[in-house]
Structures are given as C-alpha cells and as structure tokens.
C-alpha cells in the first residue's frame, strides 16, 4: 500500500465527467424520493378546497395541512448533517422513506382536519431529510468532478414538480378521491425503499458526533417560527400584523443566536465556517435571490390561468408544460458543461432568458394569446434549466467529502427559507393589488394555492372590466418578480466562469489537501 498526495484522477488529461452506471442508479434512488417529497407539496395545494368540504373547515384550517408539513420540514432539515455523520446516509435515507410512507398512509386514514394536520407533520419529518440526504449521497457518489451532471438529474423533479403536481392532483381528486392524494405515495415509496436497499452502499465509516443541543434548540424552532410568520402573511395579506411579526421576529432572533453560537463552538449543528469559501458564499447569495424570485412567480401562473381565464386546474397545469419542456432541454446540457467550464456563463445566460420570458407576463390582459404565453414559458424553462442546478453545483463542487453533509444541509435550509419568503412576498403584493382594485377579487388562500373564483361569483355574468382589472394586477405583480430575477444577475456575475478546481486537488478553505491512499 502506497501513499500519494495527488489523487489518481489528477494526472494528465481532463477528468471524465460522464456518469457511470452506479452513479445513475444512485441518482434514480434520489429522484424517486425527491418526486414524492416535491409532488406532495403541490398536489396537496390543489386539494385545499376539497379538504374544506370533506372536513367541514375553513380555508385557514385547511391551510394547516400545508403549513404543518412545511414547519416539520424546517424543524428536521438542520438535523440532516448530524444524522448522516452519526448513523450513515443510507440508514437515514431509508428511515426517512419509511416515515414518509407511514405518514402518507395515516393521512389517507384521517378522520378530521386535526388528525390530517398531525399526520402531515409526521410525513414532513420524513420528507424533510429526503432532499438534503439525497444530495449528500449523490454528491459523494459522483465526486466533485461530476457534481454538475448529478445536480442536473436531481433538478428534474425540483423543476417539474410544480407543473406536474396540479395535473396529478386534479386527476386524482376528479377521478378517484382525496385519499389518493396521499396513497399515491405508497407504491412510489415502497419502490424507492426496495431500490435504495439494494443500490445504496453503506457508508465506509461513520463518526459518533455528539449532537449540538444548544444549536438544535436555536436553529430548528427558529427556522420553523420564522417560516411560520412569513407564511402567515399570505393569510393576513400584510406583513404588518402581530400574527406575522411576532413569530417571524422571534424566529429571526433564534437564528441570529444560532449564528453566533455556531461561530463560537467547535462542533456546531451546522458549520457556518463554510462561508469562508468564497464560491460557496456567492452561490448561496445567488440561490437566495433566485429562489425568492422563482418560487414567488411560480404561484402566479396557475392563479392567472384559473382565476382570470377560467381554466380548470388540469388545463392550467397543461398550459405550464412548455416551461418544463424548456428546462428538460437545457438542464442536462448545463449540468454536463458546468463540470467542464464552470457555472458562471450558464447562470448569467439563464437569468437573461428568465427575465426575457417573464417580462411578457408584465403586459398581461384578460385575453392575451396563449401561444404568446406558452412561448414565453418555454423561454423561461430554458433559463430555469441553466440556472438553479448550476448554482447548486457551484456550491457543492468546492466541498470535500467531510464538508458535503453541512454544505447540502445549508443549501436546503436556504432553499426552504427563500422559497417561503418569495411565496409570501408575491402573495401579499397580489392580494393587496386585488383588494385595492376591486371588491370581489380572485380567491387567495392562506397557503397561496391557486383557486377558482369564489362560489358566489361562479355562474354570474361578470363584466369584462373585472377580468381586465385582475389581469392588470397580475401584470404588476409579475413586474416585482422580474425585478427580483434581474437582481440575481448581480451576485451571478461573481460565479466562476471556468472549471472549479476539485477540493481533492487544491486546498479547501483552511484545510490541507487530504492524503489519498492507494
């Protein structure tokens, strides 16, 4: 046995970025888990009206089926890095799948809104670790040289979930019953469980780190309270109310306390010293702005098609299909090329395409051509495929194996927080605009799920001016999203525009390059 300070793949010739059979099989495992977790959010959003009718509750009560799930995600995501180090990624991933499947079965057996919310929390505790642990597994299996390619694979369910969810949810509720919104997860989950058992390899070694109790007591409730406060703004239609400010401020104070604690302890729950890594810091800033803008705008499209144009949930989902098609075209190309020439050029081009496509929606009318809108959505999709996952790759490709758990957990915290902020900001802007321009507006529920017009307005002859006024409000709200997308261009300018050096070859932050044993 010999030792060398230079890894085998660092010798002459460019490294092979092609994904081998094992990595593709691991990617299949992670994608199955991601599909369940992401589709579940959008499918349940479509079922909000059904929950109100079935369980005799109001919109606020039904919204807790989404809020409870989100809060469970926020509470458990920070534990991902510690759990992976303590028990191994395979064991944690399998446990998360079991918990998610169990929660899905229990949700289908719910007898009132309280039990459904409680079972959604169980489901969220399982779903919260699927994405961060999945990212750890994929990143370690592929190595830093191929992280862009594997992130492109993982990005498929992340980008297509918001499009496929409404279609699937509409079909299940219309053709079967609300129970199948949850039961659909069972066969997918069992397949993922069996597949994972045989494909995933046990971690070569696991440490026995003590859990950072203080960090856990600060970050998990802090993140949950902050997201609860921010999400509540959609129900209150303003940020300036006690129901929003009190939990959000308390959560922000707890998060600030965690930041101070993490920088002053040897073994924090989440190592924030990773921000010494310049590329990761720039990627996090870029991702934050992108997620706020993208997820804020994402909820506007179906609401416009349903509320202003009178389309069904299924039709609205189909009208969004060009966006998914565009993303499917550019995502694998951007992933592969990011590994070879860096993410900067692709992200900048993607932001330009996103801005151009979304700008069309600023000029919405009540009868704007669907051909024009679908074309704009296709252009946006091309931009999406070149943006989200290359940003993620820029962060993870700079990390060595020991840093991957903290890095992937950090990126998932950023994603969850940013998407909630974006949805809340756009919901408040839209609701305020509708309330200010008309007495009877488009129905906006507390979790921003797209809805049809209120029952008292259905079947009535509404004047054309009503729909024109509503379309103008949507256009103004899209302008906010366009500005947010354009602002993403600023930090993206500082992303690497050449191949990112492997952390196995060069020093990463303060740590020397590891000795590779052959």
Helix content: over 70%
Shape: globular
Low-confidence stretches: 1-14, 439-461, 504-518
Sketch the major β-sheet: 2 strands, antiparallel
- Measured distance between first and last alpha carbons: 6 Å
Gyration radius, in Å? 23 Å
Figure out the total of helices: 21
Number of DSSP strand runs: 2
Strand content is under 5%
Mean pLDDT: 79
Structural classification? mainly alpha
Described by its quaternary structure, the protein is: single chain
* Neighbour order of strands in the largest sheet: 1-2
Helix and strand sequence: EHHHHHHHHHHHHHHHHHHHHHE
List the helices and strands and how they pair.
Layout: E1 3-4, H1 21-46, H2 48-54, H3 59-76, H4 80-87, H5 89-108, H6 113-142, H7 147-175, H8 180-183, H9 185-199, H10 213-236, H11 242-262, H12 278-298, H13 300-308, H14 313-319, H15 321-341, H16 344-359, H17 370-385, H18 388-396, H19 404-437, H20 464-487, H21 489-492, E2 516-517
Antiparallel strand pairs: 1-2
């Amino acid at each position: 046995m010999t030792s060398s300070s230079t890894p085998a793949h660092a010798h002459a010739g460019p490294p092979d970025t092609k994904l081998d059979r094992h990595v593709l099989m691991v990617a299949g495992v992670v994608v199955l888990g991601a599909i369940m977790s992401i589709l579940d959010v959008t499918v349940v959003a479509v079922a909000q009206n059904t929950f109100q009718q079935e369980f005799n509750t109001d919109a606020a009560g039904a919204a807790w089926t989404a809020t409870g799930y989100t809060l469970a995600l926020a509470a458990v995501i920070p534990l991902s890095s510690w759990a992976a180090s303590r028990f191994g990624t395979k064991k944690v991933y399998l446990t998360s799948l079991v918990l998610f499947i169990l929660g899905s079965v229990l949700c289908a057996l719910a007898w009132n809104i309280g039990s459904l919310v409680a079972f959604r929390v169980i489901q969220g505790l399982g779903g919260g670790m699927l994405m961060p642990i999945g990212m750890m597994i994929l990143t370690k299996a592929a190595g830093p040289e191929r992280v862009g390619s594997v992130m492109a694979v993982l990005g498929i369910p992340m980008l297509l979930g918001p499009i496929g969810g409404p279609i699937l949810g509409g079909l299940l509720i219309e053709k079967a019953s609300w129970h199948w919104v949850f039961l659909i997860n069972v066969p997918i989950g069992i397949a993922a469980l069996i597949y994972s058992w045989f494909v995933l390899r046990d971690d070569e070694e696991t440490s026995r780190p003590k859990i950072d109790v203080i960090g856990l007591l600060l970050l998990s409730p802090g993140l949950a309270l902050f997201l609860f406060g921010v999400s509540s703004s959609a129900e209150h239609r303003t940020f300036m109310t006690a129901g929003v400010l009190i939990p959000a401020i308390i959560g922000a104070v707890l998060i600030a306390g965690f930041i101070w604690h993490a920088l002053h302890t040897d073994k924090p729950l989440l190592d924030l010293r990773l921000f010494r890594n310049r590329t990761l810091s720039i990627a996090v800033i870029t991702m934050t702005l992108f997620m706020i803008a993208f997820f804020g705008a994402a909820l506007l499209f179906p609401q416009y098609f349903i509320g202003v144009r009178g389309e069904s949930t299924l039709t609205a989902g189909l009208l969004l299909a060009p966006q998914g098609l565009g993303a499917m075209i550019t995502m694998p190309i951007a992933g592969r090329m990011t590994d070879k020439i860096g993410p900067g050029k692709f992200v900048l081009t993607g932001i330009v395409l996103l801005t151009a496509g979304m700008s069309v929606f600023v000029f919405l009318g009540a009868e704007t051509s669907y051909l024009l809108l679908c074309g704009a959505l296709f252009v946006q999709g091309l931009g999406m495929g070149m943006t989200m996952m290359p940003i993620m790759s820029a962060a993870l490709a700079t990390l060595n194996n020991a840093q991957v758990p903290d890095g992937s957990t950090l990126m998932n915290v950023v994603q969850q927080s940013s998407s909630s902020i974006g949805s809340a900001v756009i919901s408040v802007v839209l609701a305020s605009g509708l309330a200010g321009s008309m007495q009877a507006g488009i129905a906006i529920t507390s979790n921003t799920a797209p809805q049809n017009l209120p029952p008292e307005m259905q079947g009535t002859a509404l004047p054309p001016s009503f729909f024109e006024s509503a379309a103008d409000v949507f256009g103004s709200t899209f302008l906010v999203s366009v500005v947010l997308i354009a602002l993403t261009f600023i930090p993206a300018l500082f992303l690497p525009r050449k191949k990112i050096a492997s952390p196995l070859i060069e020093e990463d932050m303060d740590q020397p390059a590891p000795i590779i044993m052959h």
